[in-house]
Amino acid sequence: MIHRRDAGATWSGNHRYHATEVLLPGDLDELAEVVASAPTLRVQATRHTFNDVADSDASLVSLERLPTRVEMVDDRVRVEGLVTFAHLAPVIEARGRALHNLGSLPHISVAGAAATGTHGSGVRNGNLSSAVRALDIMDADGRTHRVDQAHAWFPAAAVGIGAFGVVTAVELQTEPTYEVTQQAYTGVAWDDIAGDPERVFGSSRSVSVFTTWGDPAHDLVWAKSDDGAPDWVEQLGGRPVGDDIHLGSIRTVDNTTPRGTPGPWHTRLPHFRADALPSDGDEIQSEYFVPFSAAREALAAVREIAPLFAAELLVSELRTVAADELWVSPAYRRDALAIHFTWRNHTAEVLAVLPHIEAALAPFDVRPHWGKAFTMPGEAVRATLTRVDDFVEAARAADPRGVFRNDFLRRTLGL
Ligand SMILES: Cc1cc2nc3c(=O)[nH]c(=O)nc-3n(C[C@H](O)[C@H](O)[C@H](O)COP(=O)(O)OP(=O)(O)OC[C@H]3O[C@@H](n4cnc5c(N)ncnc54)[C@H](O)[C@@H]3O)c2cc1C
Known about the structure:
The protein is of the alpha+beta class. The chain has helices at 28-37, 85-93, 110-116, 154-157, 190-195, 197-202, 231-235, 295-304, 306-309, 347-361, 378-383, 388-398, 407-413; strands at residues 3-5, 21-24, 41-43, 59-61, 69-73, 76-80, 97-98, 132-138, 144-148, 166-173, 175-176, 179-186, 206-211, 220-225, 239-240, 246-247, 250-251, 263-264, 283-291, 313-321, 336-344, 367-368. The radius of gyration is 20 Å and the shape is globular. The site of flavin-adenine dinucleotide (FAD) has 33 residues, from strand 3, helix 3 and strand 10.
């Protein structure tokens, strides 16, 4: 029997879904029934987005009652149903395998993360979608298509923003397991961070810089390395912080992953532990991608206007993402600097400051994170995505009746 519940709100409560209900099929046959009878439908996964990307003006569907499966197929892992990275990681670690990277938290769904180009950090690390090798996608008639790398839709569907149908299975590339040691440091001067981003972001597997754009006491370099504690941060004056980490105005209370000791990749790459509430919780997030080659100028442009947004900021995080070939990925064909903002959960005030940031970053062909708050008009978004027309054509071919389209896709991509 197909269950139903209220659509509710996003994880942080900043967006209440307009959809009238969430449908909860118990197996793939019931999912096909839901899909084939819906005039319009979007998937609600773990709800860790900060805008209406997952919304619908009719129904949502969740895979949370479908059976889940995580299995190794040669050097790939195949996940079926609503599987999170917290669920997936220990299973493949037990088989001696790993993913190339993880985001700041493992609580999110694999399909939802891939759909929006979710990323961690590292100049050599593509976003999490770049590990996708195949998808099973149920179309609006309830038929399932395997979209692998040989399929014409693949470069569109791997960061598909939910426009291709319901992803019922994802196959990800794995690699041999590895250990990571992480440490967070205060004391690195902003001029060293912004003046030599190649050194700061390129010297460890994954580097994040937390900043409030002015107060050096809040600047924190968080480095994750394969080969023990990195000496480059201490050469720049960095001092390891103790247990009590402050990320700007976010005081992390016993929710971060262990620092100072080596451990399996999935216990160190996310900042936040799987068994605790990540980040602040009462927040909105935005994130913008500029070419890494423009990092110095882009950082200077944001810092110059920081007084305009300081009152709403909890913290910013700077990360890097390696270029990929996925048509509407924020890292499509360019290595990116990702400039992230965690805001107070004040929708009106945050929406009022975002245009200032977007204007400051416009000269750098800025692209927004699909899952986070932004105000850039559709024309500006599309202007930075050279393959957006191919994406739209593929999505229309996959979903000719437009069942999986919503206001977000119409507004931002013209779909
Ligand atoms: C505390 C916190 C930390 C975060 N950290 C990071 C980070 O480190 N890096 C980063 O890049 N982002 C980060 N994000 C953003 C988040 O990872 C992304 O927005 C991601 O898309 C969330 O996935 P979800 O499944 O929770 O979202 P949902 O809102 O449930 O879904 C996201 C999109 O994917 C679609 N979708 C989901 N599942 C399917 C499916 N099975 N088939 C078809 N479409 C589907 C939805 O329709 C929607 O359009 C963070 C968010 C939070 C709240």
